[in-house]
Amino acid sequence: MSITVLIATYNRAPMLQRCLAQLARQAFEPGDEVVIVDNGSSDATDDVVRTAVARFPVPLRYVVEPSPGKSRALMAGLAAAHGDVLALTDDDVLVGDDWLAAIRALWREADIGLAGGRVTPGWARSAPRWLRFDAGIGYGPLAAPLALLDYGPEPAPLGDRTALGANMAVTRRALDAAGGFPLDLGKLRGTLLSGEDHALCERVQAAGFRAVYDPRLVVRHHVPADRLRLAYYVRWFFWSGITNAALDHRSSARGEAVRLAPLRHWVLRAARGAVRLAAAALTARLPRCIDALTDVAFAIGYLAFCANRIRKGGRRTSSGTRQPEAA
Length: 327
Prior knowledge:
Blueprint: E1 3-9, H1 13-23, E2 33-38, H2 45-55, E3 60-64, H3 70-80, E4 85-88, E5 93-95, H4 99-109, E6 114-123, E7 156-157, E8 168-171, H5 172-177, H6 196-206, E9 211-223, H7 230-251, H8 260-282, H9 286-311
Helix pairs in contact: 1-2, 7-9, 8-9
């Protein structure tokens, strides 16, 4: 079984350099390779890759995809990849020392199409007091804007949960059957649109392939200081509302016309969140303030997507709800 490690990058040359240095220490086997897709960088990304090529233990390919968007970059990388399994990570991630070995062992143990694992934090500075995670029981919703993931210590079917592109492996056969990476979702410059990982996990399983979570797959994701500000959280949950509305829209087989009841649901959710926010502020209960504020931002984002579809004469699904997905 050959593995292609696939990384999309944009203007993160120093982080990419550290990412590749860690990756070079993996237990590669004959036929393995690494594909770096430069999504239009204007920094020293090309120099970093050229320097790494000379001493990398397996072929290191460099692909340029100027059209912005992570999903577009990954599709360009897929076209250049030769591996049976695509191991996805990001330029701001340090994979675990046995990451590739764990992926290979997992595929030798079971017939699966997709696997995801834990994404742990690499803090740029101390986390604020309102952002606390309970060790040993996984992460709550506030980990999603930081692209952190922990579904617990035991392997399990993925089901309707999401594996993150920072730590995901998928067979080429399953990826082809799923139609590749969804080009209408994923990060675009100037937005925090996401959803591509969730859509891929759904589509792989809908195509008849098993998808699993396995805690042996571990990576460390850099968490910059600017993502630890409340303003970033509000913006992220607003875009998470847009993302979830987009996912609901594309999951409908018929594309039902917008109905007033679903819109009322989100208007009421925003209003109730605002009331909870005011009550929490009066009692100076910070955790409840954060919870209410992010819920309001999510509901407004969902409504913004619906309003945009209505203005354009579009169609969407009814008011199904989803958990926020990581960016």
